[in-house]
Amino acid sequence: MASSAMSWGEPSLETAISTVHQGRLIYRGSDATLLARSATWEDAAESLWQAGRMVSLTFSPDGANEQPFAALAALIQESYPGLGRSPGRLFADGEAAISRLAEAFGAAPIEGALDRRLARGWSLDGDFAEALRCALVLLADHELNASTFSVRVAASTGAPVAACLLAGLSALTGPRHGGAGAAALALLDEAQRRGPCIAVRQTLAAQRHLPGFGHPLYPMGDPRAAALFEILPKFGLADDLRAEVEEVSGLRPNIDFALAVLTRLGHLPDDASFRLFALGRSIGWVAHAIEQFGQDKLIRPRAQYTGNLPD
Asked: What EC class does the entry list (predicted)?
C-alpha cells in the first residue's frame, strides 16, 4: 500500500459497496441521494448487504440501559469468528450487533423501522422524523473512510462481526472523524451567541478549519448535506452562517453541518450526530466486514522505516 494512498490518495482496496464518482455518492450502482428520498435504514441495509431478504432489528426493554461499547463487547464474548460462515449467518450477526447499538443509542423499544424507533425515542415527527430517516440512509457508507478501514482490518483477521463494528465505532470517536459533528455544532452555537461573522473570523484566526464545511471528495458541495437541507425547515441562523462561510472561504456545507442543524432544530441530544453517524454507518461496516471475509487474506501492510539501522 503506497504512502500516497493513506490520505485521500489513490484507491487501495477493491470494493463493490460504494464510491464517490463525479461528486455523487454511489451505493452499489445507485445514487445514494435518490435512494434516500424514500428508503428506510432497513432498505439500505438489504441493498448494501445484498441480503436477499428483509433486514430487521430486534429490541429488548432493558437494552436502553447499556452503553454502546459495553453492548458490543458483551456480544463479542458469545459470537463466532467471521471466517468460514455463510452470508446468512453473518447477516444475522450484523442484525444482532446493530440491534444492541440501536437500543444503547436511544431507539424506542417498539416494533418498526429504525428511523421510527429513533424518532419515537427522540420525540420527533413531521419534517424532523423525515430528515432523520434520510440521514440514516445517506450515512450508510462512504467508501474507505477511517472507521470502515478499521472494520476491514479487523475483518481480515477473522474477528466476529460485533468486534469489527467495535473497531469501527472506536475509530469513529476521533475528532477528525465522528467528532466532526460536535465541532460543527460548536460553530453553529458560537454563531448563535456572537453572530456568524465573528464566529467565522475567530475560527479562522485560531488557524482552524471551518468545521462542517468543505470536503475533499465534493469540491462542488456535499450532496448528502444538500439532500438533508431539502427536508429540514428553514433556519435563518444556519442560512446566514452558510452564506458567511461561502463568502469568506468558498466552502460549502457538508453532512456534519447538516446534522448539526438537525440537532439544534430538532432539540436533539448534543451527541445526536455521532449516534446517527454510527447507526447509519453500521450498515456499511457490516457490508465491508462481509466483503472482507470473502477475500480471505490478512490486511498487513509493510511500514516505511525511518529510524536508524545498526552498523
From this structure: transferase
Query: What pTM, to 2 d.p., does this model score?
Result: 0.94
Q: How far apart are CA 5 and CA 2, in angstroms?
A: 5
Comparing 80 with 311, the larger pLDDT belongs to 80
Q: What is the CA angle 102-126-284, rounded to 5?
A: 35
Among the listed residues 115, 141, 142, 215, the single catalytic one is 215
d(CA 11, CA 101): 30
Query: What DSSP string describes 157-211?
Result: TT--HHHHHHHHHHHHTSTTTTTHHHHHHHHHHHHHHH-HHHHHHHHHHTT---T
SS3 content of the chain, % helix, strand, coil (to 5): 55, 5, 40
CA distance 156 to 249: 41
Q: pLDDT digit string (tens) for 47-88?
A: 999 999 999 999 876 666 789 999 999 999 999 999 999 999
Q: Which residue has the cell 451527541?
A: 271
Tell me which residue of 118, 75, 65, 66 sits closest to 97, measured CA to CA. 75
Taking alpha carbons only, the member of 95, 150, 140 closest to residue 289 is 150
List domains and CATH numbers for the chain. Answer: 17-173+276-295 (1.10.580.10), 180-265 (1.10.230.10)
Closest CA to 143 of 299, 29, 11: 11
Helix (H, G, I), strand (E, B) or coil at 141: coil
Options 93, 115, 141, 256, the catalytic residue: 256
Retrieve residue 112's grid coordinates: 418498526
* Alpha-carbon distances of 36 from 30, 226, 276, rounded to whole Å: 11, 12, 14
| Residue 3 and residue 14 in contact, taking contact as beta carbons nearer than 8 Å | no
17 with 25: CB under 8 angstroms?
Answer: no
Q: How far apart are the first and last CA of the chain?
A: 29
Count of residues for the chain? 311
Catalytic-residue membership of 215: yes
